[in-house]
Specification:
321 residues, Rossmann fold, 12 helices, 11 strands
Length: 321
């Protein structure tokens, strides 16, 4: 199996090699280093005595830190390598007592259950840039911390989803009442000016809601659309209409559970949303993301439209019906 764009990878490798010879910083090349390791694992160039763990990622949010850990664990397991768990570290956007936020979230998701703890594995530890710089280490027995293995799981999203569903237990979904439809709209530090690549304008969200409402109206099933957001009611007010509500009072964990257990989920461009999507066993509408969709997801076009006939077909054959 190939990984991504071969030409792009080898061009980047030449550039990184050139920077090293000149003594320039390679801190911006972390994606390349992680892909180089995955390629080495797949080629059998890296000893099976190597154990992989996650780098610490201070200030990054729940979705980013958990998804990266799952990508490393899933890839290591799929390719026959050891995995050791590094607890969540200084999570961004803390709730309640800041000093205990990471530990509380770790306890809730329980990702380290059944895994070797990285601090207790007893192996000499190297970070991924050092490991890539010294190929002798590739045949050693050591612990290597990496940022992520998206180079593998983005090409094999089903491997990531399967591993995530084994690790994370969600509340049971009830099949009573109408369809529970969830949409995630990130605001706060995401706007037209800040992190704008993750920003989805209300007008586009509105087109998605209208299309879903058309499908549900045509079927005749009862439904409710909940827009989960950290934005204010005022800035999201133009989305409110019959059967649509804005939910901005839940904490991150409660919001995550609501997204992951919905009957229909609109997955938007954030790690938090993508993580909830790969755990969701209902219908997922996939809107532009760095990470690739599962095969049965419905892709949303740039204008906010999607295959409404296919959505109707999935709804009519779903367990909820």
């Amino acid at each position: 199996m190939s990984l991504g764009n071969e030409t792009e990878y080898y061009a980047r490798r030449a550039w990184v090699s050139f920077k090293r010879r000149l003594g320039l910083s390679v801190k911006s090349d972390r994606k390349f280093f992680c892909e180089e390791i995955v390629r080495g694992m797949m080629a059998g160039s890296i000893s099976k005595n190597i154990v992989f763990t996650n780098d610490r990622m201070p200030a990054e949010g729940i979705g980013s830190q958990i998804l990266s850990r799952l990508s490393v664990g899933a890839t290591a397991r799929a390719l026959g390598y050891g995995f050791a768990y590094t607890p969540l570290y200084k999570l961004g956007h803390p709730e309640g007592e800041k000093t205990s936020w990471s530990e509380r979230v770790d306890d809730i998701f329980n990702l380290g259950s059944g895994e070797l703890n990285a601090d207790a594995c007893g192996l000499k530890h190297f970070r991924y840039p050092e490991f890539c710089n010294d190929k002798k280490l590739w045949q050693d027995a050591c612990l290597v911390s990496v940022r992520d293995f998206y180079a593998y799981t983005d090409e094999n999203p089903d491997v990531l989803a399967s591993y995530a569903r084994q690790k994370i237990n969600l509340p049971k979904k009830t099949l009573e009442g109408g369809f529970n439809i969830a949409l995630h709209a990130r605001r706060g530090d995401v706007s037209r000016k800040q992190n704008k690549n993750r920003y989805i304008p209300n007008a586009r969200l509105s087109r998605m809601i209208e299309a879903i409402s058309r499908v549900m109206g045509g079927i005749g099933s009862d439904y409710r659309i909940s827009v989960y957001t950290n934005g204010s009611l005022e800035e999201m007010s133009d989305l409110v209409r019959d059967k649509v509500r804005i939910v901005n009072t839940l904490g991150a964990v409660e919001t995550f559970e609501a997204l992951a257990t919905s009957d229909i989920l609109v997955s938007t461009n954030s790690s938090f949303s993508y993580l909830s999507s790969i755990l969701n066993d209902g219908i997922v509408l996939y809107d532009r993301h760095t990470h690739k969709p599962l095969a049965n997801w419905i892709s949303i076009d740039k204008d906010g439209s999607f295959d409404e006939k296919y959505l109707r077909q999935l709804i009519e054959t779903s367990a909820h019906r």
